[in-house]
């Protein structure tokens, strides 16, 4: 069982920056692919960025060049650095950890952190 705790959300003006953190505990962090998802009111949850155990990264097109995902295995933490924020980035951001072991899949979620971009 893995526990994920997000932090770092808040209110920021357009063009500003935030850094989200997701601290993991209870399982072997380095084995998991980590992702940040977001869900805006009335919209489906979407994958924003992901990073594999080998540090391969992927981003949704709308955040490329503005957001950076990273992981620190010594701290069991994954980060999402968000720059040049836009009002359309407003959403609840969720941390996700997933690992496949044979036929088993392990999938964990954090509780979410609100990001609001507004003047």
Mean pLDDT metric: 96
Oligomer: single chain
In sequence order, what are the helices and strands, one letter per element? EEEEEEEEEEE
Q: Into which percent range does the helicity of residues fall? A: under 10%
- Strand-residue fraction? over 45%
Shape summary: globular
Segments where pLDDT lies below 50 for 5+ residues?
Answer: none
What is the CA-based Rg, rounded? Answer: 14 Å
Q: Which labels suit this protein?
A:
119 residues; mainly beta; seven-stranded mixed sheet; four-stranded antiparallel sheet; 0% helix
What can you see in these coordinates?
The chain is mainly β. It contains no helices and eleven strands. The protein has strands spanning 3-7, 10-12, 18-25, 33-39, 46-51, 57-59, 67-72, 77-82, 91-101, 104-109, 113-117. Strands 2, 4, 5, 6, 9, 10 and 11 form a seven-stranded mixed beta sheet that branches. The protein is globular. The mean pLDDT is 96.
Summarize the structure.
The protein is mostly beta strands and 119 residues long.
Topology of helices and strands:
Blueprint: E1 3-7, E2 10-12, E3 18-25, E4 33-39, E5 46-51, E6 57-59, E7 67-72, E8 77-82, E9 91-101, E10 104-109, E11 113-117
């Amino acid at each position: 069982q893995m526990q994920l705790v997000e932090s770092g959300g808040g209110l920021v003006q357009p063009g500003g920056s935030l850094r989200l953190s997701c601290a993991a505990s209870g399982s072997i962090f380095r084995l998991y692919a980590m992702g940040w998802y977001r869900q805006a009111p009335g919209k489906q949850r979407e994958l924003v960025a992901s990073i594999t155990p080998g540090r391969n990264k992927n981003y949704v097109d709308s955040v490329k060049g503005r957001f950076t995902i990273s992981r620190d295995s010594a701290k069991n933490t994954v980060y999402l650095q968000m720059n040049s924020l836009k009002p359309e980035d407003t959403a609840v951001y969720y941390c996700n950890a997933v690992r496949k072991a044979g036929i088993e899949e392990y999938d964990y979620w954090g509780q979410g952190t609100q990001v609001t971009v507004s003047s």
